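Dispersed gene family protein 1 (DGF-1), putative
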Amino acid sequence: RGSASFASGSWLSVRGNSISGRLLSVPSYPRSADLVQSTLTLHGNAGSGPVVMDGTVALGSAGRKFVVGCLTLNGQVLQPMDYRSAGIIGKFRPVACGVCDADVSCFAAATRAMSGSCGCRCAEGGYGRDCLPVYLPRVDGCNRTSAPPQLSHTATLTATRSPTPTQRLSTTQYGSTETLQVTETVALSPTRTPTASVSSTPWWSDVACPTLAVTTTAAGGSLTQNDIRGGGSAVPTLLMVALPPPFRWARDPQLGTRLSFVPVSTAQPRGFGGPWGAMLSNATWVRNATNPSTVLELAVPVHRGYFIAADETIVIRCDAAAVSGGCKGVLLGSFTIASNTLPAAASTLSAITGVVAGAAAAA
């Protein structure tokens, strides 16, 4: 028991409900809700009973908002002067029915502005009608949400003439398509044999996979050949990949196996194309201790035989299944290992390599 606290930047919107009973109830003791740089919206609702809500909403500092309006209690439209007697205790801002108001309709932290048609214009990181920080399926009616992509439901109701009423329910599934068929046979007059069929394919946001942000703990933030060869440091260098909000890594014990490395620069036998490349591919990804839901990291393997004559760029490829909720496509990020070799020296080394290779071929 205790007060309900809203973390900074939160938004609780209670709107568009018609229920039998109070619309909102805060904890039993001490019956208060404390908003921390957050917004509580109670708008466009109808309830019944002695009060709309119980408890007290505590503001107390800047950035906290309690927005109230367009409420009906026991069939009577409430005016702001009626709110206290209806159980709405606390400092609130009234908003009338039909008024375009960002605090009523939009998640402020991810909303840039409101359009002329009262729609929320999302900033970066805001999605959907309300500019929420996460992707959500569209709700279609009471207690009914859309299914994942490529999943469809077909319901068929057939009524024919029969002396005895019977009912049969069967479900057939093929791959990613599920068909629900309900066939009911009832007694009808000989002149009437109606058939009704309904089929629909649910909607789901088609979200493109984001780009991975790749960083390292190496000095200067970029890997060099010296880092791979050891560099005299006793502390392992970490390679980290991060997801941008609102994406999160899936809760998958095999998450690390969904990431792989692909070289995009010229293959170098003593670089990624050699033993070190195999060591890197077999290294274990773990969740970052500070940001486990968005950051993965691995210890860059040390190999003193690593040598590259030119910079080596490597792409990190990640399957969409590694992201909670999935996404369309694959996730990609890249990093470059600097050769620490001057251009003139690199040309000389390349020429020497060619001479040695030619001599070996002649032998």
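thats it. The first helix runs from residue 102 to 105. The domain at 213-346 is CATH 2.60.40 (Immunoglobulin-like). bye
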